[in-house]
Amino acid sequence: MPGVDPAVSVHRLYVDPHDELVKQNKRTFSEEKGEAIREEVVRLLGANAIQELLFPTWLANVVLVPKPNGTWQMCTDFTRMNKACPKDSYPLPNIDRLVDLSIGYTVVDFLDAFWGYHQIFLAEEEMEKTTFVTEYDIYYWKVMAFGLKNTGATYQRMVNKVFSTQIGRNMEIYVDDILIKSREAADHVANLREIFENLRKPEEAFRAKEVMDNASQGEEKVPRPWYQSILEFLSIGDLLENPPVANKNKKQSLRYTLLDGALYRRSFQGPLMKCVTREEGLAVVEEMHGACVEAILIARP
């Protein structure tokens, strides 16, 4: 996942050191919600947004919020920890004023930053305070997570710094919602190009950490895909030399299976749908149901 250079912006919690540490009791979820949590955890691990942790001090639960498309959005319940954090009163733009500032422009475009909050890292000393528990493991956030206090202020401060030469001239921005405006249609492409160039600048230092230059060949070494270690372990039993990372990959591999060189997530629906048709599946279920009824009828009272 790309990210903003920590030299530009990081999120700090400023938790009151005298506040009582809280560990929430683990909640249970239905099978549907549990699967949604597992899939989101795998995605976040692959994006390097979270990391496993032993012996946490703070511990929060996850909550699932329904999305308009029928899926679930996983969030962390930071209610208790947020009470121990002071409020950041950094001013957010007035929406009505932003509308007024856009009047009279010929072309207007709107952009919504994709997972914008996750592009800002947490300060290293704050990460373990964001620990959350799932059905199978404990993790902490490495990036600014939804639900943390003052995230809007941190994000607005960052974009004001990055786009300081453009705000009011050819763009307006409210947290992660960007408006690009041009008085003349002929200038709009140039304005878009300027914005995209500024968007790339904050991540240059981060990208330098993730992509290593091969000095001898003058080429870039592409980072390994998140699933590559799992694929190697299942195919040849090979693990990375780093013990914590190897242990994490070994745990992740339990959720997948290797078929004809391709990686598949283990689930009940997947293999069933591949092996039988819908009619065959219904016939099997009816046969099982009939066997259960017959067993009840012939059982000794």
UniProtKB/TrEMBL annotation:
Name the record gives this protein: Reverse transcriptase domain-containing protein
CDD domains on file: RT_LTR
The Reverse transcriptase domain, residue ranges: 65-201
Organism: Lithospermum erythrorhizon (Purple gromwell)
InterPro entries the record matches: DNA/RNA_pol_sf, Rev_trsase/Diguanyl_cyclase, RNA-dir_DNA_polymerase, RT_dom
